[in-house]
């Protein structure tokens, strides 16, 4: 298996190049190592390589890794979250990337003992297979979240369609950026909406060109076990 430190060097070069192309500062882009397909040891290798943000998409593997990795990591929950699993993960994660319905917000708010940083997941491309709210549903949804004291909407998250067509991918990311700007302009106290969680192994460079601040990279960074 390739060393994470080598993968990271290549990915960071690509992110730097994407930033240079559009005049962004690479420090605005945080790399989340998505460790859902690898062992705890491999997640520890990511930390040792200097990546402090780890992403998981299921409660059980998340909690299992957290038994060993007890400090030094910022945890991101990136998968769809069942309401009945909220209690399990709430106290152990720093960001939830998959807020997509009021019932979930209600459960998070009910169980939370402190502010929970969330991304609202948006289905920009309108694909049936994707989770997330339709673009036009997002603003009314965020308005409703005002009622939930413990929820803070830090930004928006999306997944691009699984396609080789860069134009489709780019337009998805452009759409999320446009929506993020319009929401940030509203200056909601509970929803600053300054962040964009977009870009995975095969499309993170495009996402960074289009304004991503959190890229979620699994295969290209930590590989598959
Ligand atoms: C698995 C996953 C990723 C990482 O995917 P790779 O293609 O392996 O980089 C990113 N985001 C979400 C929501 C995922 O489920």
What is the highest CATH level, the class? Alpha Beta
Number of strands: 8
Order of helices and strands: HEHEHEHEHEHEHEHEH
Quickly give the structural class.
alpha/beta
Any idea what the radius of gyration is?
17 Å
| Integer tally of domains | 1
Provide a compact summary of the structure.
This protein is an alpha/beta fold and 225 residues long.
Description:
The termini are close together. This protein has one domain (2-215): TIM Barrel (Alpha-Beta Barrel). The relative contact order is 0.17. The model has no long low-confidence stretch (mean pLDDT 96). It has nine helices and eight strands. It is an alpha/beta fold. Pyridoxal-5'-phosphate is lined by residues 34, 36, 57, 78-79, 159, 200-201, 216-220.
Topology of this structure?
Blueprint: H1 4-22, E1 30-34, H2 40-48, E2 53-56, H3 59-68, E3 74-77, H4 86-90, E4 95-99, H5 102-111, E5 116-121, H6 135-145, E6 151-157, H7 166-184, E7 195-197, H8 204-209, E8 214-217, H9 219-222
Parallel strand pairs: 1-2, 1-8, 2-3, 3-4, 4-5, 5-6, 6-7
This protein binds pyridoxal-5'-phosphate.
Function: Pyridoxal 5'-phosphate (PLP)-binding protein, which is involved in PLP homeostasis.
Domain Alanine racemase N-terminal: 7-224
Keywords: Pyridoxal phosphate
List keywords for this structure.
single chain; 225 residues; alpha/beta; TIM Barrel; 8-stranded parallel sheet; 9 helices; 8 strands; globular; binds pyridoxal-5'-phosphate; PLP-binding_barrel; pyridoxal phosphate; PyrdxlP_homeostasis; Pyridoxal phosphate homeostasis protein; Ala_racemase_N
């Amino acid at each position: 298996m390739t060393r994470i430190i080598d993968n990271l060097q290549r990915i960071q070069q690509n992110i730097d190049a994407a930033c240079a192309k559009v005049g962004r500062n690479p420090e605005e882009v945080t790399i989340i190592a998505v460790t859902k397909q690898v062992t705890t040891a491999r997640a520890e290798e990511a930390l040792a390589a200097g990546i402090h943000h780890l992403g998981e998409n299921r409660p059980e593997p998340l909690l299992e890794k957290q038994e060993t990795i007890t400090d030094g990591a910022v945890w991101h929950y990136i998968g769809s979250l069942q309401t009945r699993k909220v209690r399990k993960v709430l106290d152990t994660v720093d960001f939830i990337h998959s807020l997509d319905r009021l019932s979930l917000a209600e459960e998070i708010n009910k169980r939370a003992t402190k502010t929970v940083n969330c991304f609202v997941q948006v289905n920009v491309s309108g694909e049936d297979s994707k989770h997330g709210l339709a673009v036009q549903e997002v603003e009314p949804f965020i308005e409703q979240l005002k009622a939930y004291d413990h929820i803070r909407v830090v930004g928006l998250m999306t997944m691009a369609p699984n396609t080789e067509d860069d134009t489709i991918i780019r337009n998805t990311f452009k759409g999320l950026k446009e929506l993020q700007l319009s929401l940030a302009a509203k200056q909601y106290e509970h929803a600053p909406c300054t962040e964009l969680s977009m870009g995975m192994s095969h499309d993170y460079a495009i996402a960074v060109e289009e304004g991503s601040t959190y890229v979620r990279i699994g295969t290209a960074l930590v590989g598959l076990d």
